[in-house]
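Appendix B. Raw example, untouched.
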Amino acid sequence: MLTFLRNNARWIAGGFLLTFFSSFGQTFFIGLSGEELRAKFDLTDGEFGLTYMVATLASAATLPFIGRTLDTMPGRRVVLFVIPCLSVACLLIAYAPNVAVMVLALYLLRLFGQGMMTHTALTETGRWFAAGRGRATSLVVPGHQLGEALLPVSFALIAAAAGWQAAWIVAIAALLIFAMPVIQLLWAVERIPGENTIDDGPDERTARNWTRHEVIRDPLFYALLACVLAPPFIGTTIFFHQDYLVELRGYSDLAFAAAFPIKAATTVVFSLVCGQLIDRFGSFRLLPFFLLPLGVASATAALLTPVWGVYVFMFLIGISYGFTATLVGALWPEIYGVKHLGAIRAVVVAAMVFSTALGPGLTGALIDTGVGLPTQLLWMSGWCVAACVMLGFIAPRLAARAA
């Protein structure tokens, strides 16, 4: 791993920075200003949640069109418009004069932050690496976890000293002064597997190049999508409703907060483990098993009521997140090739963003009708088990088709 990282540091570091700075468009970072935005525009929790859902759904609808630019220009050029657009979004969210501009800012944050920053990092990694694709993806993905660990604290310190709007201005400075020029420098050299690097070269796990039109007519694509959408849907739902669970179980306010480091550390460790397994066995062999930790985690959150159950849940969901992020990042080139990977992954990422918007709203409506979150979590656990069974049938067909 150290030799691999040393030989490919510039490309991996660029992808890592993109996933790290995608945090400015992630729910956990935007939520740090939620109270101030609600107060500024006199919005209820429900009204703010509705605007956030609308903005997220709009970004999911737009992403397939913008995401395909990665098939027509190199990632370093895509970064030249993605990062400035994300910076404009940070400025708008800080100084929005009305609700309409706030919704526009949320839309841009979700589209260019959560969407395009992550999409660019994982698409280029999937295209640049072949035999080491799993390891490369596993080293790029932890940028998300580092962002979750460092940025909320940094935001809180800046906001306490100079106000919440100043924290967004610092985010703009970090993007334009540091992130964009450094990523341009790191990605100035295009990586060609086996030619300009020490690498095993393209291997048999990279499939023929499907077009996006072919992919959307492939029934196995939708079967896969029904499975890979489980982690973003379930994870966003649980963390969105964590206050509900804390009140329901009588936990202290710090119960969930104190367990987040366990989730972050476990995610990083198992992301690296998954990368090694992918390079050794291929993504297809791991497919039937990657949702098992999430299924057990959902059942744990539903059934274990003591406070220590939170730590068990965080450990299990960390395993799930680690496997999911790396596997889903490396999976699509093995199934559909790399030539149109930008357009294909844009559809997948848009569906995942859509699921993160749908989850809190749908489950919240069920809670209002009397269906408690623990009951819903048992359904979600069943979803994971059913998906594992379905993947057990799908994976051999995918492997045979690729061969």
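End of appendix B.
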